[in-house]
Design a protein that fits this description.
166 residues, elongated, AOC barrel-like, single chain, 8-stranded antiparallel beta barrel, mainly beta, 10 strands
Length: 166
């Protein structure tokens, strides 16, 4: 009897691990010029500014989650810039091909040229929720991008989990 309980528990752990397995994801997203874009001098030292922006985004290489692909999205970002570096905190919302949405929180560092143009961005992100079958998505990852003319494609990598289907 004791061996049946041990086997049943072992199988339970195997199925639980499979149900919460990490799924790798990646994609490339580009966001357009911010609109609106607000920037205010902090006043404590020259060149120290705080900003708030919103940008529309498109996925040139969509992420695929549970058979659906990311289509378009938007970023809302607050920044704290001094000199050529800015710390950013923001939220991204993407719509999937079936209409579900994913919500992402991100933090990172942006590098600007001396004339204020974006050079690169990098940071970390995590899912903060979603809609439909992605309502309870969990996961995290990294992002990095480098300016390419007037565009900054951002490569996104990470993992996600969803509860097992009943």
């Amino acid at each position: 009897m004791k061996s049946k309980i041990v086997v049943a528990c072992a199988l339970g752990f195997v199925f639980a691990a499979a149900a919460s397995a990490q799924n790798k994801i990646s994609g490339t997203v580009s966001c357009g010029a911010p609109d609106p874009a607000y920037s205010v001098e902090a006043g404590d030292r020259p060149g120290h500014t705080l900003s708030l922006t919103k940008s529309s985004c498109t996925w040139s290489t969509p992420m695929q989650i549970e058979g659906e692909k990311t289509k378009e999205g938007s970023d809302v970002t607050s920044g704290d810039a001094s000199g050529e570096k800015s710390r950013s905190i923001g939220y991204h919302v993407s719509t999937m091909t079936n209409g579900d949405k994913i919500f992402v929180h991100y933090t990172g560092t942006d590098v600007m040229s001396k004339d204020g143009k974006p050079v690169s961005t990098s940071g970390t992100w995590s899912f903060s929720g979603g809609t439909g079958k992605l309502k309870v998505i969990a996961g995290k990852g990294t992002y990095k991008g480098k300016a390419d003319g007037g565009n900054m494609p951002v490569e996104v990598e990470g993992e996600y989990t969803l509860p097992a289907k009943k």
